[in-house]
Amino acid sequence: MAKGYQILGFRLKGRGGEIDLLARRGRVLAVVEVKRRATLDAAVLSLKPAQFERLRAAGEAVRRNRPALQPLELRIDMVALAPGRFPRHLRGVERGG
Fold first, then answer.
1. 84 Ramachandran zone, left/alpha/beta (phi>0; psi -120 to 50)
2. Taking the CA of residue 59 as centre, how many other CA atoms within 13 Å lie in the half-sphere pointing to its CB?
């Protein structure tokens, strides 16, 4: 919220999968995966291709079922957490591996 995002939901469950955070900022609908690991790098690397595809499918399902969200651009983001470190927000993550 401090970065100007409107939080639309937490831990949303649906057929496509679970969304940790759903947020909107301007014309972007962000499906946000939150990963906590021992290091920030480990958290960033933990998003696998299959999970990325599930997040995209879940985001598409939410967007399809909420007419006000349909014109927005869907983007997959990640928040990486590690003990003793500031959270890292990664915008527009690509399909990992």
1. left
2. 24
Specify burial of residue 33 (Cβ count, 10 A radius: 0-12, 13-18, 19+).
buried
In this predicted model, what pLDDT tens digit does every residue of 53-87 receive, in sequence order?
999 999 999 999 899 999 999 999 999 999 999 99
**pLDDT single digits (tens) 49-61:** 999 999 999 999 9
Domain boundaries, the chain: 6-90
Q: How far apart are CA 65 and CA 51, in angstroms?
A: 21
Q: Does domain 6-90 bear CATH number 3.40.50.1240?
A: no
